[in-house]
Specification:
By secondary structure, this protein is α/β, with parallel strands linked by helices. The chain contains 25 helices and 13 strands. A six-stranded mixed beta sheet has the order 6-7-13-12-9-8, sandwiched between helices. The chain has a five-stranded parallel beta sheet with strand order 2-1-3-4-5, with helices on both faces. Strands 10-11 form a two-stranded antiparallel ribbon. The longest helix has 23 residues. The radius of gyration is 27 Å and the shape is globular. 44% of the residues are buried.
Length: 650
């Protein structure tokens, strides 16, 4: 969407407001310098592209920690974190007889302490040179129109590591809490703060730091939100709901194969973020050239297919290509020579031969290539059989014998796929990894000890009350109360399974549905700002579905909660995004779910699905968004040294 039309409470809207501020405040300089730190430059890159920044009159973007040349005739916009180091650097730039810039417009990404404000006021030479001093409340990263991350990539290691470090853990949670609070401050939303409560085995058992992660984070967020009440136009009553969880609620979702187009792109294609590199024919007739494309929301085909099952996505792409050819006489003539039905690949080659349609077909051709590559990898790696076994294990329809049979018959299966299978097995059948059993499975799968560490480290994500129940002293990874059936999930009634391997669902799907209905246990998920004893009565559930109350100051004119980054190829999906989110105006209060320790693409997909189902916008936040290989690497880092199974006594 065009930023000029954006809601001022959205991330990008606030950034553009900041960039335009110098113009509004009677700045006489035509061009400005934009100065940022490592975090804020990343925030900016998630929301804007360089051409947009230049269009707002910024001629130079600088790093606050690099030596910069004086530009005394130009104004500077500082978009920085409110740290002591940043404030010292800013004062150094603007103090004395020869400041680096004419005037400074300073915007902090999160609330600044009174001490630092006092420190700025002390420097009388700087004060007349400050054109603006403001808190932007913008320290989160929009990954999707219904998802954001706080970009704490080491959160899993810092919070769930084998050697508990309370000081490091608290520091991590403080940063996360501050960044989450900026989401609500920028959106003018004040949430009911719900969190997963810590559970101990009995009154005599002490809870660990890991048990208290959601509780501590909820308290941190609440402290930040109370301060936000002084922000102009911030609501004084609750306008939405926030549910704080951590990775311990679902250890299967990060490793099971998710069969949607989006998830498989990131799982199988070695993509760097959202960047996909492919080869295109050379315009000069030479060897193929490499081209980078971003698979993001500015691409209407990506927007349409990203949450579709890969089989469905492939069918739809073939249909789109066939429709294009049928409407194009030149393509029909080109293809009629051979006769017979054409494959999607034939159709792709055919339209590529028509230069006048190249711009029109580029995106379609790209997705045909990607889907073809994914389907080829699925066939070559035998992922359908593996995927079926994974889902059967989760739903209690397969057991240890089936895993042994698979490992014996598929010795050529990749090391990563065998490891992911054993991690799912450990989640459903923890007792199968006690004592020598785990070593025997490792030998059968031919996995090295470092891979087995990933399986063993899953115990660190299990709530301690569950882990301590293991009589043999090994770890326990129970998910649900279905131990007799050995199933980590129950089949969901009323859910139609159109495509094979689409049976699995992440735990947050059930939790969000219960929250929306007012059925989420108050004991297991207490509320920081519980308004009354009737909090879980039916009246609460009914109230949630009312239209947004008048005191909510955010505009519903532009309903997507945050702006995705604009495209680098000039492709606009304005109409698609408008159409996709037009009904949000009529929706009830938003639900925010925050997952400490990394979220998955299946969990992001579920939030999109539940938005339509519950008629409430469901926004997913996390410390990071992890694909299976990233999650497994992080899991291995939870133990600083290699452990044998004998070391895993709890």
């Amino acid at each position: 969407m065009s930023y000029s039309d954006s809601d001022s409470s959205s991330g990008a809207g606030l950034l553009y407001e900041m960039l335009r501020s110098a113009k509004m405040k009677d700045s006489k300089s035509t061009w400005k310098v934009l100065i940022m730190d490592k975090v804020t430059v990343k925030i900016m890159s998630y929301s804007c592209k360089m051409a947009d920044i230049t269009a707002e009159g910024v001629s130079l973007v600088e790093d606050i920690y690099r030596r910069r040349q004086p530009l005394p005739s130009m104004d500077a916009i500082y978009f920085i974190q409110p740290t002591k180091e940043n404030v010292i650097m800013f004062l150094s730039d603007m103090s004395g007889r020869t400041p680096l810039y004419k005037k400074a417009f300073v915007y902090f990404s999160s609330p600044i302490s009174r001490e630092l404000v006092a420190h700025i006021k002390k420097d009388t030479s700087v004060l007349p040179r400050i054109g603006a001093l403001s808190e932007m409340n913008l320290e989160y990263f929009a990954i999707d129109n219904q998802g954001f991350i706080t970009d704490n990539v080491k959160a899993l290691e810092d919070l769930f590591g084998d050697e508990e470090n309370t000081r490091k853990g608290d520091a991590c949670l403080n940063v996360v809490a501050t960044r989450i609070a900026t989401v609500f401050a920028s959106l003018r939303e004040f949430p009911f703060v719900r969190y997963r409560a810590a559970k101990s085995l009995d009154p005599m058992t002490m809870t660990t730091f890991r048990d208290l992660i959601p509780t501590k984070l909820a308290a941190g967020i609440w402290n930040c939100l109370v301060k936000c009440k002084s922000v102009p136009n911030f609501p004084q009553r609750e306008t939405c709901e926030l549910l704080i969880l951590d990775r311990s609620i679902d250890q299967i979702a990060p490793v099971i194969h998710e069969w949607t187009y989006d998830a498989l792109c990131h799982d199988l294609l070695n993509m760097e973020g959202n960047k996909y590199v492919h080869e295109v024919p050379s315009k000069t007739g030479g060897p193929p050239e490499k081209k980078e494309v971003l698979l993001e929301e500015h691409d209407p085909i990506w927007l349409e297919l990203r949450h579709a099952h890969i089989a469905d996505a492939s069918e739809r792409l073939h249909e789109k290509m066939t429709n294009f050819v049928s409407k194009n006489k030149a393509a029909q003539l080109h293809g009629s020579r051979d006769g017979g039905e054409l494959s999607t690949r034939d159709l792709q080659k055919m339209v590529q031969a028509l230069p006048q349609y190249s711009e029109q077909i580029d995106k379609l051709s790209l997705h045909v290539e990607i889907a073809g590559k994914i389907n080829r990898i699925i066939r070559e790696q035998g992922l359908r059989e593996l995927g079926q076994l994974e889902q059967d294990l989760v739903f209690g329809d397969a057991g240890m014998k089936d895993v042994i049979k698979f490992l014996t018959a598929n010795e050529e299966a990749s090391r990563e796929n065998k490891l992911r299978l054993l991690m799912i097995l450990a989640a459903v059948y923890p007792e199968k990894f006690e004592a020598e059993k785990g070593l025997n499975l490792m030998k059968l799968a031919k996995l090295p000890p470092e891979d087995m560490n990933a399986v063993n480290n899953m115990r660190l994500l299990a709530p301690s009350s569950e882990a301590k129940k293991s009589s043999a002293g090994a770890f326990s990874l129970k998910f649900d109360m279905h131990k007799k059936k050995h199933a980590a999930r129950k089949d969901r009634g009323g859910e139609q399974e159109t495509w094979q391997l689409s049976r699995f669902y992440p735990v947050i799907e059930e939790l969000v549905e219960k929250l929306s209905k007012g059925e989420l246990s108050k004991d297991d998920y207490p509320c920081m700002n519980d308004p009354s004893p009737t909090f879980h009565a039916t009246s609460q559930a009914a109230a949630i579905h009312e239209a947004p109350v008048a005191h909510s100051m955010r505009s519903r004119r532009t309903p997507t909660w945050a702006r995705p980054r604009a495209s680098d190829d000039g492709y606009s999906s304005d109409s698609v995004l408008r159409h996709a989110s037009s009904d949000l105006k009529k929706m009830g209060k938003r639900i925010f779910v925050f997952l400490v320790g990394g979220a998955t693409r299946s969990e992001l997909r579920v939030c999109h699905k539940l938005t339509g189902k519950l008629n409430r916008e469901v926004v997913l936040g996390s410390t990071s968004l992890d694909d299976p290989p990233q999650f497994i690497t992080k899991l291995k880092l939870l133990t600083a040294h290699e452990l044998s199974l004998d070391d895993l006594q709890i």
